[in-house]
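Now for our specimen.

. . .
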Amino acid sequence: MVDRQSAPLGQVSDFDIRLLRIFKTVAECGGFTAAEVSLGIGRSAISLHMSDLEKRLGLRLCQRGRSGFALTEEGREVYQASLTLLASLETFRTEVNALHQTLRGELNIGITDNLVSLPQMRITHALAELKARGPEVRINIHMTPPNEIALAVLDGGLHLGVVPEINRLASLEAMPLYSERSLLYCADSHPLFDVDSAALDSACLARQEAVVPSYPLPPEARACHQRLNGCATASDREGTAFLILTGCYIGYLPDHLARPLVEAGRLRVLSPERERFTTAFVTVTRRGRRPHRVLEAFLEALAAQP
């Protein structure tokens, strides 16, 4: 039973920070069982640590039982406060590491989904060079929608983001990275798969049920999607691919993502001369950011890529 009348929290110890890290992982995984793999400890140990933290804080942080796992209102607030604390600790560690010649610390990157199949592997090569320079550097990649990446870079949760160049914010610095081409596709089970190309005019395509993105798009891409009969949405390009492969929808995909499926006979390109658009990608960092040797080393490696 948590004692809500306990004295206010005093000095935060190393043990408290360890408990907060465990709590953060449990909250993000959605329960004790789901957090076992991430934490490398068993459910009983996680439960014990969570009980210790609740006693230490004098607050009930989560509900757990037959009805499932859920954070309490206090738990949600403690989770947000723990993010602030742990981010501050990382900032402190990064700034102290800057005093040393050895490259240490973390690099937190947010990347829009399904860029790994691009022929230009500038991100991959730059990360490899960063690890060669600093073997102790810890790299954390988060696959996140573009608008969430920009916000996370602004609030310091991410050091760098890789996003489409859309509505660039004045508080973010952008560096051109590469472009990708998107084409319109249908699956082998879709009625248009075997239709003669000459019959695939704008009116025909506009009658088909289509999947459209639920995230912001550059003007050229937005204009192409507005011509479609949007009947389903997807939060990322992989979700779009899933829906196209049902055979119920047509939709746009990056050509590098779709190429293996086209070669396997599972997708067909529809009117590639007309139904296409190009998306420019950039890296974004916070303008006026504090010195961060790991980030600067990565940006240098990225700028040096052909």
Notes: The chain has three domains: 14-95, 103-175+281-303, 179-280. The two ends are 61 Å apart (CA to CA).
